[in-house]
Amino acid sequence: xxxxxxxxxxxxxxxxxxxxxxxxxxxxxxxxxxxxxxxxxxxxxxxxxxxxxxxxxxxxxxxxxxxxxxxxxxxxxxxxxxxxxxxxxxxxxxxxxxxxxxxxxxxxxxxxxxxxxxxxxxxxxxxxxxxxxxxxxxxxxxxxxxxxxxxxxxxxxxxxxxxxxxxxxxxxxxxxxxxxxxxxxxxxxxxxxxxxxxxxxxxxxxxxxxxxxxxxxxxxxxxxxxxxxxxxxxxxxxxxxxxxxxxxxxxxxxxxxxxxxxxxxxxxxxxxxxxxxxxxxxxxxxxxxxxxxxxxxxxxxxxxxxxxxxxxxxxxxxxxxxxxxxxxxxxxxxxxxxxxxxxxxxxxxxxxxxxx
Length: 356
Description:
This protein is 1% helix and 48% strand. It is mainly β.
C-alpha cells in the first residue's frame, strides 16, 4: 500500500502576518531639514523601516493633523495643517519650540508601495485638518474638520474620493459642525464619532455641544443619521478601529491610553472594558510621545514612543499586541527599538495588505 501524503505543516502566526504592513508618519520635535517622513512596521518581523520623506514640505516646516489612508498598494496623505517650527522667543538656548500655523491645505498625494513613487492626486474640495477619514469599497470618505485658522468652529462638509477615477465628490452635509472627530467604517456604513460638535444654525448659535454623538452615513440612501451618546464622553476619542465586526477604542484625545481596551456594544449603545485587556504600558518610560493603534487580522497593535530618561534625547518605540480572539494570555509585548532624537506622530497609522 502506498503511504498517505503528509499533511502540510501548520502556518505560523508570523507567516500569516507576512503580507501586512503598518505605515506611520513622523516628524522631529525640533526644527531642522527633516520635515515629515513615513516609516513602515512589519508585524511578522517586528521591524521598522524608513520609507520616504513626504514631498512638498520645506525645511523647518511640518504637516500635522492630516489623514493617512490606504487603498490597495497605495497610501494617501490627505489635507492637513502646515506649520512652521521655531524656537520659543523666551527660550533662547533651551529646547522649547513653537509650531506656528501657516495654512490649511487641500493637497492629496499618493505613495505607491510597489514602485516607491509619489504622485499628485485631485485635491479636496475643501481644505481641512482634524477631520474624520475612513475607507469603504476602495473609496475614501472625509467628513468634518476645521477649514479656517481664524475660527474654532468645525465644518459639516463631507466628500468622497474615488481612487479609480481620481475624483472627489461632495456629499450631503452632516447634521453638526464637527472637528477632531473619528471616522470608521462599520456594518457597511460610514461612522463619524464624537469630536467638538455644535449645531450649524448661524442665526442662532447656541452653546450646546454634543461631543458624545455620532453621525452615520448610509451609502445606499445618501443620508446622514444622528446617533446620540454613541461615544459617551465629553472628550473626543483618540482613535477607533473596526476589527472582526467590532469597534475598539484605546482612549480619548487627552488620554490616548487608559490602561485597558474598550469595545462598543451596538445593541446597548455603550462601551465596555474587554476582559483581560488591562495593561500598564507606561510603567517604565517617563514620558509618552505618541500612541497609535493598528488592526491586523484578529490583533490590535499598539505602537507607542517614549522617553525613558529625563535627559534622554532618543525615542524608545514599543509595540504591544492584543489578541481579540484569545481568552487567556491576550497580550504580547515585542522587543522595543530605540531611535535617535525625539519624534512626534503626525497622523494615525494605516494598515496595508500587500498583494500575493
